[in-house]
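Duplicate of #3305? Posting structure anyway:
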């Protein structure tokens, strides 16, 4: 999808939510590939208060009420757990939904778009590129703590907001179908990326087979643990709050760890068109392992631990083939800003797969040296 820059009528949309005071201003926010994110500012008796207002992409998330039901349950559970531990729910540490004036978790406007509103977390930000390993350690600790939090989520299995989201075999088959049909006549421009992708087929079933054999369990996971989905405190550097909860659903812990490796170890941003800039940074990987094991080490099985390094390579490959598929299908899924944006992203991810593969045994040895709980 080519990115559009026109600002919607944020004042009217914000008026659907239970917000006090007067609307002052609104602007675009963030760098996500899927939803449209805005920040709106209200004057509440002389104090400026900001809110995070988001239009959920309902082409991708087909059932927004179900998705919002998942998110409401996760947010309530986080707050309840903080309070049952004798503390109090901290609205900088877990997302707080602002309900609509009817008390619902989301609002559908006249055009059929779905909107939601969160308290805006002040004094913290997300990072598209890790500046030092300490940020990776903190982000991984926060994502591990989030998995831990969800281990005792009460109630029915969460809705699958995107079925087979990390089913790498299905992703691979979808790529093959896109190559075969080549509806947009783009395959010739991606010849070497296609050849690279098809040559990696032996990666795609590894975790699925382990799961099928019962060696790794299904858990409630985040499924989109890229680094810019955790807010880092501006002052303390702490991994404060896990955000972007649209894909919280049943999954594998390794999908989450793998996406941390993909998004954090890369020495270049995901959009960098020059694959020569892309290297997996070992000290960042090590910090991710330390941070993740500090909060998730107690519940991980031996098989999960043994595949931490592999999971990074697998998820990087998986996202790479999703970008390549989207390029071949005519840029219908991810937001793009230039004609070969998705192809550049695929190239970037495949360079990272290459670098992760070259370092996999060193990475595995590092994991093995870590103390067990
Ligand atoms: P997307 O699905 O498009 O990635 P996100 O939910 O990740 O959307 O939000 C986009 C950006 O908005 C994030 O990267 C983060 O910088 C910012 N953000 C998200 N939630 C909040 C919040 N509650 N308070 C402040 N900033 C937020
Ligand atoms: C999308 O929404 P955002 O930008 O955090 C995508 C992820 C990809 C990521 C690649 C629902 O994440 O799966 O890994 O882009 N989210 C969805 O940057 O498809
Ligand atoms: Mg995001």
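Output from current build:
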């Amino acid at each position: 999808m080519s990115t559009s820059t026109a600002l919607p009528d944020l004042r009217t949309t914000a008026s659907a939510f239970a917000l006090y005071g007067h609307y002052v201003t609104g602007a675009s926010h963030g760098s996500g590939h899927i939803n449209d994110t805005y920040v709106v500012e209200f004057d509440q008796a002389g104090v400026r208060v900001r809110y995070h207002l988001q239009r959920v992409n309902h082409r991708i998330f087909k059932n927004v009420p179900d998705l919002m039901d998942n998110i409401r349950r996760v947010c309530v559970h986080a707050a309840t757990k903080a309070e049952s531990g004798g503390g109090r729910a901290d609205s900088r540490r877990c997302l707080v939904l602002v309900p609509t004036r009817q008390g619902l978790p989301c609002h559908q406007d006249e055009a059929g778009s779905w909107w939601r509103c969160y308290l805006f977390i002040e004094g913290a930000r997300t990072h598209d590129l890790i500046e030092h390993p300490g940020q990776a350690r903190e982000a991984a600790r926060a994502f591990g703590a989030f998995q831990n939090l969800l281990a005792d989520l009460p109630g029915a299995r969460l809705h699958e907001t995107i079925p087979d989201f990390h089913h790498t075999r299905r992703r691979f088959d979808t790529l093959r179908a896109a190559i075969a049909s080549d509806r947009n006549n783009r395959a010739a421009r991606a010849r070497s990326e296609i050849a690279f992708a098809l040559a990696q087929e032996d990666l795609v079933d590894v975790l699925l087979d382990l799961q099928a054999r019962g060696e790794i369990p299904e858990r409630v996971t985040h499924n989109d643990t890229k680094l810019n989905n955790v807010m880092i405190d501006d002052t303390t550097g702490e991994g404060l709050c896990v955000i972007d909860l649209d894909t919280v659903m049943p999954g594998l812990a390794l999908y989450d760890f793998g996406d941390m490796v993909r998004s954090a170890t890369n020495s270049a941003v995901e959009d960098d068109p020059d694959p020569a800039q892309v290297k997996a940074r070992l000290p960042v990987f090590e910090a991710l392992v330390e941070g993740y094991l500090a909060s998730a080490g107690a519940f991980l099985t031996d098989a999960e631990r043994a595949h931490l390094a592999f999971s990074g390579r697998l998820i990087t490959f998986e996202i790479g083939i999703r970008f390549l598929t989207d390029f071949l299908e005519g840029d219908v899924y991810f937001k793009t800003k230039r004609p070969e944006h998705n192809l550049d992203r695929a190239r970037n991810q495949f360079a990272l797969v290459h670098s992760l593969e070259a370092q996999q045994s060193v990475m595995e040895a590092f994991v093995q040296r870590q103390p067990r709980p």
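Confirmed duplicate; merging threads. The domain at 133-369 is CATH 3.90.1200.10 (Aminoglycoside 3'-phosphotransferase; Chain: A, domain 2). Strands lie at 22-28, 36-44, 47-56, 107-108, 114-119, 124-125, 219-221, 230-233, 239-242, 249-251.
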